[in-house]
Amino acid sequence: MKQEYIDIHCHMLPEVDDGAENMETALSMLALSEKQGAREIILTPHYEHGCNGYRKGELSERFSELCERAEAAGIGLKLHLGNEILWFDGAVQAVRDKEALTLAGSRYMLIEFYPDVSFQQMLRAVRSVVQEGYIPVIAHYERYETLRRQNGDQEIEELLCQGALFQMNFNSLSGKGLLSGICPDRRTAWCRRQVKAGNVSFFGTDAHNLGARSPEHDRAAAWLKAQIGEAELLELLFENPQDLIADRTI
């Protein structure tokens, strides 16, 4: 039996970013996700201020079309819409103006940074989001060198204390992932230590296509099953995402 999960971060909405290139690819990605155990998915196209290839409101139109096509194809997934927001100083205002979207209409904002972001920049962003009544979820936090260096554990603890939550990509647990395509052994070990330390609140596929960045999670789920308890596994893959979608505090 496949491990059930909710994917809070992926790029399966077609023709809006560097994710699914067309409707057929998007439907194939959704079908593969369902086959692997997904029950709900939040579609999170990139929001990059001033650089988006879509107009305001177009995401909702494309989302409605995808939902209709998925239902017609017999795909039983429950779909939600959001954005992965590349942080800039006006990000919270963009959300208030509905230029950028929170996750599934909740208070949770999925935020990414440039890879060379400093800890102080991350900390200021987290504080800004929390002060405005939103909850920052830092996307694929294993990518940020500032958090992986020697004193990174202290920085992670500080971000958690300030109200941040962390999302990790499934493939980073299985020795794949990151933009280079292969995750070095030491980085995989770091990711696994983070799970065991209880610092991860969510997982996502961050799927972009049916090739190197497909919605695969099987190997990561196998490692999680072997290394953490059933209750924690359920919390990470299902309960925390459910609470997010329902806009409950985690």
Calculate Rg over CA atoms: 17 Å
- Secondary-structure element string: EHEEHEEHEHEHHEHEEHEHH
| Sheet with most strands | 6 strands, parallel
Shape: globular
User: Beta-strand level of the residues, as a percent range?
Assistant: 15-25%
Low-confidence stretches: 178-183
Alpha plus pi helix count:
10
User: Whole-number average pLDDT?
Assistant: 93
N-end to C-end Cα span:
28 Å
Count of strand segments? 11
Describe the protein.
Helix content is 42%, strand content 16%. With 250 residues, it is an alpha/beta fold. The strands form 3 sheets. A 6-stranded parallel β-sheet has the order 3-5-6-7-8-11. The longest helix is centred in the C-terminal third of the chain and has 16 residues, at 230-245. It is globular, with a radius of gyration of 17 Å.
Task: Outline the fold blueprint.
Blueprint (H helix, E strand, L loop, with lengths): L4 E3 L15 H14 L1 E6 L2 E2 L10 H15 L5 E4 L2 E3 L4 H6 L11 E5 L6 H13 L3 E4 L6 H4 L3 H10 L3 E5 H4 L2 E2 L3 E2 L2 H12 L5 E3 L13 H10 L2 H16 L5
Parallel strand pairs: 1-2, 2-4, 3-5, 5-6, 6-7, 7-8, 8-11
Antiparallel strand pairs: 9-10
Identify the notable features of this structure and list them briefly.
250 residues, alpha/beta, six-stranded parallel sheet, three-stranded parallel sheet
